[in-house]
Structures are given as C-alpha cells and as structure tokens.
C-alpha cells in the first residue's frame, strides 16, 4: 500500500519548550556543539493508490486537520521514498509542497 | 434555562460544570460528543479535561467530533458557549475564537489559584462582573500559552475581545497576559482557568477571610442565567 508522508513543524518564531528540553539534556551530556533542537510531527498516511487527486486531498487534510496554521507549518507532503511513484523522478517533485 | 455540557472521550470536569450550572439556578443537560442533538438547550459549556488524550493537538480531534457541527452552528446563531481549559482549546481549534494555545513556556504543568482581571463585561458569561474586577479561580494546565500573530493580536486588543487577563503572574507565557477571549458577538467565551471549580464555599480557592471559600466562578454561570431571564 502506498504511503504519503506529511511533515508538520511548530512555527519557527515560536518557542518549542519540548525541543528546548531535549537540547538542554544534550548540552548536559556534553554535546555542547548542538545548539538547538526543534520537535515536529511526521504523519504516514496509507492510501489505496496515489494520484494527483489523492495528493490534493492529503494536502487539504494536512492544512485543515493535521496542522493548525496559527501555531504550525506543513513542511512537506510527499509519497514515501520506497514507493515506485516516489522514484519516478518528477513524481516526488510534484508531490512535494515545500514552503 | 437549560445549559448543555458536552462530554468528549477524556473530558474530566463535566460533572463540576453541571454542578456549577445547577448552583446558578439552571438545569444542566448532558450532551454526548458523537450525537448530532443539542436537546434544545439554551447555552453550552465545553468542559475541561484531556479530550482524546491531547493527541494531535489539544482539542483538535474533539473540534472535529459530530456534535461540534451543531455547536458551531449554534454559536454562529448567537447561543452562549463557554469553553473552559480544554474546552477553550476546542473553541480555537474549531475557529470559533482566534489564536492558538501552546505548551507552557516553562514546559511544566501548572496548578494554582490564579488571579484574573475581568476586561470585558459585555459578554454572555461575564455580565455579572464589574469592569476591571479582580477575581481568583483555579488554573491547571500544561498547554495554556495563548499565541496569535501580530495582526490577529492587534485586532483582538483593538476590538476589546480580551475578556480575562492574568494578574500578578503570567503562569504560561500567554501573549499580553491573555487568559480568556470572546468573539465579536460576545456569546462565545473561552478561558484556560476553571470557573466551575470556584462555585461553592468549602471547595473553592482560599480567600483572605476563610480557606476554600472563593466562589468567583459562580458569576460566569449566573451571568448567562440572568441574561436569559431578562430576555424572557
């Protein structure tokens, strides 16, 4: 079954207390060269088949349900790498809506 | 007057909200998240808790539950709707109130008796307060930081939609100390602190005169009842 991956991140200008806590722990473990961590979400959406209509629908779901535009950005909507449609070259570029 | 209290999977404070409605002289009506029936109620409370375990985002899944279609329609027709804590999060996720709520800036859950200033007394749920009145009701949340983009924040402030502001201490990093909001029409109110936990002497916050005697939260519920009586 093909999988569509959606990446959502908290808006860059917002404080991310969870990411800050992880960065603080890393610093305490001596990883002083790591200057920041931000935590987002990855959704793996299984569909019967991938086509433009399905991708458009997932993009709509990503904006309306999977993310809240007040506090988050949809970073990417793409077909999972191991799916043939993702390896067809252009398909991946078409599928992505990077911002 | 009949006031509906919606229970979602993971709601915690619906019984306290029902009790507050009863103490204010109205009849509480239990509403269920998966129904499409408001049972003819005159006002609605979305209670606190952790609907759907706060999965996805606090309030996000509840905002898409069946009964919310009727709640949104009723709110847009002017029915009084009060969202408390998780209920406030549901209201912003349902776009009935502007802005969003994120994890407390210090990263910790906070529980305290919280002082607030009433900034807007022309809403369905605050008409019994004096403008600028300071009240104390319990606060308990992990994700109560109110945010909005600069343009939205300017509009909220310009239109007087800020209904409650934290006083003394901002417990979660909310912008402009915003604790609660109303919509343009004044029928929808959402706030992070819990008025339904301060409605009966013996169970509320401490006051200068006696322990646990604070009942400042009761005015939310008597406000909506008195306005209904005035219209009748």
Automatic annotation (TrEMBL), chain A:
Keywords: ATP-binding, Cytoplasm, Ligase, Nucleotide-binding, Purine biosynthesis. The keyword Nucleotide-binding applies. InterPro entries: PurS, PurS-like_sf. GO terms for biological process: purine ribonucleotide biosynthetic process. One of its GO terms (molecular function) is phosphoribosylformylglycinamidine synthase activity. It comes from the Bacteria. This is Phosphoribosylformylglycinamidine synthase subunit PurS. It comes from Ruicaihuangia caeni.
Automatic annotation (TrEMBL), chain B:
InterPro entries: Class_I_gatase-like, PRibForGlyAmidine_synth_PurQ. The active site is at 85 (nucleophile), 194, 196. This is Phosphoribosylformylglycinamidine synthase subunit PurQ. Pathway: Purine metabolism; IMP biosynthesis via de novo pathway; 5-amino-1-(5-phospho-D-ribosyl)imidazole from N(2)-formyl-N(1)-(5-phospho-D-ribosyl)glycinamide: step 1/2. The keyword Nucleotide-binding applies. Keywords: ATP-binding, Cytoplasm, Glutamine amidotransferase, Hydrolase, Ligase, Nucleotide-binding, Purine biosynthesis. One of its GO terms (biological process) is 'de novo' IMP biosynthetic process. Part of the FGAM synthase complex composed of 1 PurL, 1 PurQ and 2 PurS subunits. It catalyses: N(2)-formyl-N(1)-(5-phospho-beta-D-ribosyl)glycinamide + L-glutamine + ATP + H2O = 2-formamido-N(1)-(5-O-phospho-beta-D-ribosyl)acetamidine + L-glutamate + ADP + phosphate + H(+); L-glutamine + H2O = L-glutamate + NH4(+). PROSITE patterns: GATASE_TYPE_1. It is found in: Cytoplasm. Its EC number is 6.3.5.3, 3.5.1.2. One of its GO terms (cellular component) is cytoplasm. It holds the Pfam family GATase_5. GO terms for molecular function: ATP binding; glutaminase activity; phosphoribosylformylglycinamidine synthase activity. It comes from the Bacteria. The gene is purQ. Part of the phosphoribosylformylglycinamidine synthase complex involved in the purines biosynthetic pathway. Catalyzes the ATP-dependent conversion of formylglycinamide ribonucleotide (FGAR) and glutamine to yield formylglycinamidine ribonucleotide (FGAM) and glutamate. The FGAM synthase complex is composed of three subunits. PurQ produces an ammonia molecule by converting glutamine to glutamate. PurL transfers the ammonia molecule to FGAR to form FGAM in an ATP-dependent manner.
